[in-house]
Design a protein that fits this description.
The chain has helices at about 15-30, 45-50, 80-100, and strands at about 5-10, 35-45, 55-60, 70-75. It is an alpha/beta fold. A four-stranded parallel beta sheet has the order 2-1-3-4, covered by helices on one side.
Length: about 100
Amino acid sequence: MKKVKILCCCGAGICTSNYLREEIEDRIKEEGLSKDVSVTLCRVTDVDELVGGVDLLVTTVQMDKTYSVPMIRALGIMLDDAAAKAALDAIVKEVRNVMQS
């Protein structure tokens, strides 16, 4: 099974992306996938240089361009439980897709 590298980004790469990482890691652990997934944080301004080494980009901000890896906008994690669940479901689905590719 392939190890999956997730890049989480927000405007400053500190508060929101750290919260996002914690939520993703908690859900990945619940799914029994934590040993196969790593999550790295960055600022939006650093995405271009870091995205080449990851499998999935998760962001809380609107990105102005597309990348060669799947991208999930996960602002819902900050909004309410239903939106958070939908965002985390999408992330887990993409992680499983990457693992099987």
